[in-house]
Specification:
By secondary structure, the protein is of the alpha/beta class. The chain has one domain: Alpha-Beta Barrel (TIM Barrel). About 40% of the residues lie in helices and about 15% in strands. Helix 2 links the parallel strand 4 and strand 5. Bound molecules: phosphoenolpyruvate and manganese (II) ion. Phosphoenolpyruvate binds next to loops. Phosphoenolpyruvate (PEP) binds next to loops. Pfam families: DAHP_synth_1 (PF00793). One of its GO terms (biological process) is aromatic amino acid family biosynthetic process. Keywords: Transferase.
């Protein structure tokens, strides 16, 4: 169902006034995690001013160490909803547990399935019952076929609004956090009618690489990018090393605006 063979026309997903997959790449940005109300609202206002169309921020965070900050939970969801109210921008946030799908669906405009949960079939079926778009990240060791079959689970449950996100895969290379699979992303754009976006933050793990990888993805035809931004990356509670500060993000946005006006 997700392949171009079953539907040659590209799927365009509409969230509030934003369209994903219509040829104009969408910019999603925000901190890795929602860290507090004041901080998040301030950042949301900065991002809106910078031209961001969708806000991100984790409330339920999958962390490698059980001792690391795992997000504000429902309090984080409420902060996201408040940021949406203030900025008018839609918000995307991760849901990790089938038991949380209802509450996350109540607050978020787009439900994110994280890389680690790409093959959590119970969770996939559950978000398939929700009438909101799902952002499905590629598993860190998933083939394109496995990624598409995961999307198929969501579609089969009744939800056809799926956005795929290439966020890097595990290889022997450990200089970067993951290896950004540009060829895989391009192949996915050819093989599915669903929108395909890139996450250069988790794909690289290094802020100095994020901007150029983001531009590479856009040049290759990505339907959007999702970037982690933090006012003080060195103080971030998660993923500071890969987060752009405000100056870096503004610079990236000015290059993206030039790119968009030329294409
Ligand atoms: C995230 O987007 O915050 C995240 C945890 O990403 P991934 O699931 O790709 O690691
Ligand atoms: Mn992160």
């Amino acid at each position: 169902k997700v392949s171009r063979k079953s539907k040659s026309k590209k799927t365009v997903i509409t969230v509030k006034d934003v369209k994903i997959g219509n040829g104009d790449p969408v910019i999603i940005a925000g901190p890795c995690a929602v860290e507090g109300e004041e901080e998040y609202i301030a950042e949301a206002l900065f991002l809106k001013e910078a031209g961001v169309q969708i806000l991100r921020g984790g409330a339920f965070k999958p962390r490698t160490s059980p001792y690391a900050f795992s997000g504000l939970g429902v309090e984080g969801l409420k902060i996201l909803a408040k940021a949406r109210e203030i900025t008018g921008l839609p918000v995307v946030t991760e849901v990790m547990d089938p038991r949380d799908v209802e509450i996350v669906g109540k607050y978020a405009d787009i439900l994110q399935i994280g890389s680690r949960n790409m093959q959590n079939f119970t969770l996939l079926k559950e978000v398939g019952l929700v009438d909101k778009p799902v952002l499905l990240k590629r598993g860190l060791a998933a083939t394109i076929k496995e990624w598409f079959l995961a999307a198929e689970y969501i579609v089969n449950s009744g939800n056809e609004q799926v956005i795929l996100c290439e966020r890097g895969i595990r290889t022997f290379e450990d200089y970067t956090r993951n290896t950004f699979d540009l060829a895989g992303m391009v192949a996915a754009l050819d093989l599915t009618h669903l929108p395909v976006i890139a996450d250069p933050s988790h794909a690289t793990g290094r802020s100095e690489l994020v901007g150029r990888v983001a531009l590479g993805a856009l040049a290759a035809g990505a339907d959007g990018i999702m970037v982690e931004v933090h006012p003080h990356p060195e103080e971030a509670l998660s993923d500071g090393r890969q987060s752009l500060d405000y100056e870096e993000f503004k610079k990236l946005m000015s290059v993206i605006k030039r790119f968009k006006s030329q294409s």
